[in-house]
Structure formats: C-alpha cells, structure tokens
Amino acid sequence: MSLTNQLIATVLAVLLGLVLSTLYILSDSSRDTLLTQLESHAEDSATHLGLYLAPYMQQQDQATIATAVNAIFDSGFYQQIEVTDSNNNTLYSKTYDPASVIKAPNWFIHLMPITPPEKSRQIAFQWQQVGSIHVRSRAGYAYEKLWQGVRNALLLFASLSAISAIILSWLMRHLLRPLQGVEHQAMALARREYIEQPVLPRTRELRQVVSAMNLMVRQVQLMFDEQNRNIESLRSTAYRDSLTGLNNRRATLTQLTEHLEYRQDFGPASLLIFHLNDLQALNHLLGEDATNHLISRCAQSIQALGQNLGPHVVGRIGGADLVLLAQRRSLDDWQLLLEPLLHQVRSQVKKQTGAVESADILSIGIASCDTPTTSEQLLTQARLAQQEAEQGGNRSIALYHTQQHQQGWSDQWQRHVATAIHNEQIFLQQQQLVDNQNQCIHAEVFARILDQDNTPCQAGDFFGVARDLNLLEKIDRAIVKHALQHLQQKPECPVLSLNLANQALAEPAFIEWLLNTLKHSGVTSRLSIEINETAILTHMESIKALRSTLSDLNIHFGVDNFGTHPNGFSYLYALRPDYLKIDGSLIRHIDRSDEDRFFVSSLISVAHSLEIKAYAEHVERDSQRIELEKMKIDGTQGYLHGVPSTLS
Predict the structure, then answer these.
(1) Which of 145, 196, 471, 598 has the greatest number of beta carbons closer than 10 A?
(2) Distance of CA 647 to the CA centre of its chain
C-alpha cells in the first residue's frame, strides 16, 4: 500500500475510533436519559390512571378500566399495565405482544442492555383502598429510539468520511507528490540516469528530503563521470598516441591483426605507411614543436581520409610513421586520393621555412592483398614500398612491386559471388557463446558461400565483393530467413545471434522488412540481434528506435566489437543493450598485458553497473578465460570452445 493510502487509512481509522467511542458514550448517556423518561412516564401513568379509575375500580367496572388503559397503552411506551382490586385480583391487564420485532439489530441490543423500569401505585377512593395499578415500561421503545439516533449518526459519519477521504486523498497526494519524484529519481539513478527536481516543496521536511536527493544525484553523477574519465584516461594512456590522438603502436598492431587475420572483414585490403623522411633533419629545420605540429596535421588528414573511405584502421607506429588500413584500391586511385595530402604537407613545410617546396618530405608505401594475409607480412611489404618511395627521388608514392599486377577481385569471382547472393545460395555456420559453467548462452551465426570448387570460403573472400557490389543487405535478408526457418524447424536448438551489417542498417526499407518478418516469425524469444559499435555510433537515433522495437518483440539486443571506438561508451546509458561483446583486439593479450586486464575489467564493471551482460569474443587460450573469469565476465566465445560449425 502506498504511503498516501496508508496515511488516509490511518486518519480514517482514528476518526472511526473517535466516532465510535463518541457514539457509545452518547448512546450510554441517551440510554440513561430514556430510562429516566420511561420511569417518569410509568410513574405519571400509574398516578393519572389511579386518579381517573379509582371510582371505577371500586365499582369493578372493567369496561371503563379497559378503555382507559388501552388509550394510554397505545402510546407504545409500556410493556405491561395491570389493574388489580384490593384483594390483588386482576381487573384488567394489557401486555405488549412479545412476538413483535424490535426495530434494532440484535448486536446493538446485546451491546446496550436495558432493564425497563416498573412502577406500582396503591389506589384509594373515599378513604378506602380499592386496588393498585402496575406499570412496566417497554425496553423495545428505548432500543428503537437509541438505534434511530445511532443509525442517523453513522450515516452522517459515512457521508462525511467519504467527502473527507476524497479531500484528504487529494491533499495528501498533492503534499506528497515530491516523494513520487524522489522515487522516480531513485529508479532513474539505478539506470544511470541523473534527474533532479527543479521545484522544491514548501513543506520543510519534504524540502529537506528532495534537496538531499538532488544532492545525492549530483554526487553520484560526478562519481560516475569521474569513473568514465578515468577509464577514458586509461584508454588514452594504454592505446592512444599522446601527440596525434590516434591508436598508438600497440593498439594499431593489435587492430591490424584483428581485422586482417580474424575478422577478415576488409576483403581485399590496402595498407599504407606514411613516413616523414629524415625526422631528425626536420626537427633541426623546423624545430621540435613545429615538427610535432606537422606530424599532428598529417595524422588529422589521414584520419579524415580514412573516414571518407569507409571501414578503416589508422594509427601511429613510430615517431615518423603513420599507417592506414582500408579497402583495396589501385595505385592510380591512391595517387588521386593522396595528392592533396602530399601537397598540404609540402605547403606547410614551405610556409614555415620559406624554402622552395620540396617533394621528398613525405614518402608513402602501399601494400595490397587479395587473399587473407597476416598483418606482419602486409606491414613488411608496405615498409619495403615506403623505402622504395623514399629513395625514389621525386616519386613520393610506391606500391609493393609484387602486387603491381593485381587489380582486386576477378570478374569471374565477382559474378560467382553475386549469383550466389541473389539466389540465396548461402549456408550458415555457428559458434557458441558459453557461460562460466560451459552452458550455451547463444550461438552466433556466420554466413558462408561455396566457391567455384564447392568448397566453403571464408567471410573475407566474399564479403568484400558483396560490399563493393552493395549486396550486404541481401546477405542479411538471407541470414534472417535461414535463421528463422531453422528456429521454427528445431525448437530444441539454442538461441541464435544474428550480426547485422552497417550497410543494411542504413537502409530504412531493410529495417521495416526486418521488423515485420520478426514480428510474424513466432520465435522471437529465441533470437538475438547484434550490431557493431561503429554502426551504433553512426546511426544512433535509428538504432535506439530499433532497439526499443526489438525489446517489445522480446528479442535480445547486443553490441558487437565493444570498447575500441574513440568516442567511448557513453552511448550505453541511452541505448541500454542486453549485452555487449568486448572486441577481440582487447582480449588477445589479456593474459599477458596489465593494461589490457585493467581496461577490460573497467569495461566489465561499467556494463555490470548498468545491468548489462559482458561477454568476450576471440577467446583462444585457457589462460585468457581464467583472467576473464576473475573479472566476472558473463560469457566467452572463441576457438577455445570450438571452431564454427555448420548450422544444422
């Protein structure tokens, strides 16, 4: 029961107790008064009858006696009137019918016992005793009069109580409304939402409570903000280059490995190394501050270039070396894209030195791959190309020579991939996510196609083609259809998790089709949708609307590749996913790196504070899992639990 209702009930209970006590006291007093009146009536009636009936009693005129007694008896005050002669023989007796019902409840009669008074008077006529009159008052008359007064008082009390309850309810709710705001603040605080009540109540006690709650909200917000700043500071210290703000060497190499060797989500990729030639000479020529400013400007330009190219990785791997990983392009295309950057660097050096514009300030090496390769191999090739550009005089851009003949996917392979996707010749593989007791939480689904030799090919072999041909939406449609069909046919299978592509999420028509399909599937409770962190931050408003609708359909929602985006994770407060998967690049060395352990532990703490499950992906060693379990991870996924298998 709410506090308002409790207060109203308490007030009414006190009032009811007071009214009942008052009624009892008044009824008891009224009873004594009525008994006194009945006693007086009985005495007066006996006296008056005696004076009137004395001669008739001497004559024993029963008819006249009966007439007189009946006239008085009909007033209803009397239980019995009896007239006797001098020998105590009854001349006439009138008694109230004992079968007559008293117009009062039995409980009231038992509660208010009444003993009716009796009066007798000796009658004399002409100095001679002629008899006596006995009058006994009727208790029922007293009960009826008492009950009538009590009933009217109760009805009046009930009416006044109803009116008072309505007024009191409104008044209490109005006065205690700030407490509802405090409750709302407390619930919001549990969800990491910080709400203050701008209007303070006039009641002193409530004003103090609301002020204290507002102060607590501000303090908790400051505490959580400080925690987030500490985590972001740790991220910057461990993974960010202090000069450029890009990924530092360690984070860059880890992400290159993640994308090229594990996700293989770039398809054919190009890795570029940007090298400022003879950094020591530049420091001597421009000064250290100006050189640092030049490096920072180069980093900003490369980052802006990467954002325009789509999926990319950019970072600083040395004092004079910056790298960019992006989708594969030909040397001619790269030269067109990089020429403004080269011109900007040369102009800045010329502006600061006043010297003639030099072409040998920046050298760029490019290494491209069409098939999955290691990050180490691609970096080595790009370094060789960069050294060739540095030594090549006026040629600032060089492509690793063994790649000169490659032009990306063959037309035959592109036609094969396009045909397979259009015909929905896609099959699914799964990899289980398990909890700390090795129980399956869900199985993440991966799409695969067969190559020309009918052999399953990896995602990196066809996703790049699908992206270039704008077919990722069709792949996602096929994945959703096949997964729903599998769930409908096999009710005993685990929950399936589907990862939607960024390209598909940018299409409103796909979102509409997806929600309509899911709504009519009948298996939404056994489905989970995952979206890449980058896609969420790119389409935040539409993803929030999608997440809300999925929640209404009882579909779990997760964030994939969590923890590496430079914009941080403040979006979690607004999005409130059911779970998140910490990016594999942060898990790779967690059993060897103190920085990774501390950072991942902080991410898990943030998730748990928002009641969000935290999972780790790409777990390959027992030592990794042991460290993660110490951090209270909710589940792990990776080759440690088995390679992806066919969904069947």
Answers:
(1) 471
(2) 33
